[in-house]
């Protein structure tokens, strides 16, 4: 005997639990396995950033606002694009902050609510990131010393170069020996310097 709950979760009174989602066909050993399967396979998850949302409507809003360049272009042109998150409200706003104010003021959301709550990295990840930054700073400072030394060497080499003006005797256009040859006036007149 199988009982289907309103949110598509199945309870089966034998050894196996079958997933009721059309096309899935998963057979699971326990209700705990089914819960894990359902949460990992059938909840609205963003395919770009892997954020999970309670409804497909909220997932759709997230995808538009966070990953859709057409949405961003419309916002830049001043269109009301930020939908109210409350189903049935239907209002749209010009900015994220305007919608935030509406949610707090009209729908009594907590003032701390954020649709795009930033995930806080673990302490281990933060320490690893700090070590990486420190390593790159040391690496960059050593590179700066090398670059400064190279610039000093280059400056001294350039200062030793002769700066006398020299005019080529002729300049050819096209293939060698064929084509027109340009002879500067200074060379044509035999002066060797600019007129």
From TrEMBL:
Signal sequence range: none
Coiled coil, from the record: none
Entries under InterPro entries matching the protein: ZNF511 (IPR039258), Znf_C2H2_type (IPR013087)
Protein name, UniProt field: Putative transcription factor C2H2 family
């Amino acid at each position: 005997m199988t009982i289907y709950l309103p949110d598509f979760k199945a309870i089966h009174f034998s050894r196996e639990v079958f997933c009721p989602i059309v096309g899935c066909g998963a057979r699971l050993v326990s209700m705990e396995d089914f819960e894990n399967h359902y949460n990992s396979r059938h909840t609205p998850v963003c395919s770009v950033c892997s954020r999970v949302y309670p409804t497909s409507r909220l997932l759709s809003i997230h995808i538009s606002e966070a990953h859709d360049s057409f949405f961003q272009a419309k916002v830049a042109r001043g269109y009301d694009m930020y939908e109210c998150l409350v189903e049935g409200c239907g209002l749209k706003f010009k900015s994220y902050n305007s919608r935030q104010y509406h949610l707090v003021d009209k729908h009594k959301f907590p003032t701390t609510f954020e649709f795009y709550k930033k995930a806080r990295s673990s302490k281990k990840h933060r320490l690893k990131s700090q070590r990486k930054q420190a390593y790159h700073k040391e690496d960059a400072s050593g590179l700066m010393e090398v670059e400064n030394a190279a610039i000093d060497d280059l400056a001294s080499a350039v200062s030793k170069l002769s700066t006398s003006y020299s005019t080529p005797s002729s300049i050819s256009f096209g293939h060698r020996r064929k084509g027109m040859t340009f002879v500067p006036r200074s060379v044509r007149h035999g002066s060797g310097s600019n007129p």
